[in-house]
Write the structure tokens for this entry.
Amino acid sequence: VAVLGASGYTGAELTRILLNHPHAQLEVLTAERSAGQEFKSIFPQFAFRKNLPKLTRVDDSYSHIENCDVAFCCLPHGTTQEIIAKLAKSNVKIVDLSADFRLRDTAEYEQWYGKPHAAPELQKDAVYGLCEWNREKIKASRLVANPGCYPTAAQLPLIPLLRSKLISPEDIIIDAKSGTTGAGRAPKEAFLFCEVTDGIHAYGVGQHRHSPEIEQGLTDALANGDKVTVNFTPHLMPMSRGILETIYVKIGSGVTVDDLKHTLQERYADEPFVTVLDGGSLPQTRHVRGSNHCFINVVKDRIPGRAVIVSAIDNLVKGASGQAVQNMNILFGYHETTGLMQAPMFP
């Protein structure tokens, strides 16, 4: 296994998970600014592991990466496409945690990410890795675009309800809250302790890059040719990890909130990582922390004809590294839960 971009939060989380995976052997860990250093010098929590490979630069590691069975790309948006293009002739399978291959329309990618797609010839081969909905395509793929954190928490409850035509595709409002690890590990003034603690603020209002990813998945779910457009607003919370989304939807004529909940329960009854909570219990980020679980519930709004869905995940696990390992398990025919059955960490 190779982890490219191992010095970031998703890279560290991948390493933590893979160290408990019975079929994974870490062979390559890359980090451009920390090349030559021991991994434990970047993340001291791994000091107990004596046999981890030293950090290297990607350009110095291609021959080793090509000899791996799978490479996880945890690199900044816009940098992964060229690297994956260089690996295209090898047999290594790729799980890309950046946004570089999530949007099928390369023109839309350029619109939202501000630069042309550097590997458009590979985009057609990329499979969107929302595991619970794309298993068969993932099995046959070589390049998996790991979903974003906000889109994961939004799509898991909304896709089955749109497919069942129980909710309207119009006027979907997604109010999302995330911990600061979602912004990555690179130092930025906006994420200093004094800038984040003791408050909450919205960001990317009306223009967050996860909007087209969410809309792409929901449009696919609707499957009638109409494009779904959502009102999506993320907020930064003074916590390290976790995502909570409160989603407001219109329900169809004659449809009840019990119908919505029954549909979610039925669809996810056999899914190990998606749980529809009993009764009126509402998902909380603390109850999925450190796990690959998504907790969901749906309740009746006091406004007639509307419902409120609440969805919670750990942005670093189900929203990134855990789902990436889940995709790896599907790619190689391992049981999907392998290495991922850690219970949430609370307190």
Observations:
- The first helix runs from residue 9 to 18.
- The radius of gyration is 20 Å.
